[in-house]
Amino acid sequence: MKTTAAIKVTIVMLMIQQSVQSQQQKKEVNTPEVKYTIENCVNHFDLDNATKTKVGYQYWFADKNFTQENTLKMSIVEPGKSTHAPHHHIEEELFYILEGKAQFYLDGKTVTAGPNTSFYCPPNVEHGISNVGDTDLKYLVIKKDLR
């Protein structure tokens, strides 16, 4: 009986050790080595480096390939448009309105707001943002990168 218990404990210990080693190897493989400097940690907006979209453009101040956990993007949306239909995902998300008039949708309800307003989207809750003004809507998006 003691031998059986010892074998079970040994097997469990080996499984735990393999799991830990596997996770460490995965981190080593998936995490590129980034050297952070003042030059690459300060990012000034540059329209030439913005990505054109169907409704305006977006600019990544910090994306998942640079940060360790969070992303920061600025979206500019033309009047009467939205980047996409209401949706949901496992990450929480924050929006901060810089310019324009936004309609924020959260779980079946809407509210309209202007500059210096933030919107929080909890995980797995349907949400969306659209431009309901007559000028471009400019807002920041902060999102955790759940690699």
Count up the helices. Answer: 2
Q: What is the chain-wise order of helices and strands?
A: HHEEEEEEEEE
Helix % is 10-25%
Terminus-to-terminus distance: 44 Å
| Biggest β-sheet strands, sense, barrel | 6 strands, antiparallel
Which structural class do you get from the secondary structure elements?
alpha+beta
- Taking strands numbered 1, 2, ... along the chain, how are they ordered across the largest sheet? 1-2-3-9-4-7
Task: Kindly list the characteristics that best describe this protein.
alpha+beta; 147 residues; 35% strand; 6-stranded antiparallel β-sheet; 3-stranded antiparallel β-sheet; flat
Detail the topology: elements first, then pairings.
Elements: H1 2-30, H2 38-41, E1 51-52, E2 56-62, E3 70-77, E4 93-99, E5 102-106, E6 109-113, E7 118-121, E8 127-131, E9 137-144
Antiparallel strand pairs: 1-2, 2-3, 3-9, 4-7, 4-9, 5-6, 5-8
Question: Can you characterise this structure?
Answer:
This protein has 147 residues and is an alpha+beta fold. It is 22% helix and 35% strand. It has helices spanning 2-30, 38-41; strands spanning 51-52, 56-62, 70-77, 93-99, 102-106, 109-113, 118-121, 127-131, 137-144. Strand 1 (51-52) and strand 2 form a beta hairpin. It starts with a helix and ends with a strand. The mean pLDDT is 85.
Can you describe this structure in just a few lines?
With 147 residues, the protein is of the alpha+beta class. It has two helices and nine strands.
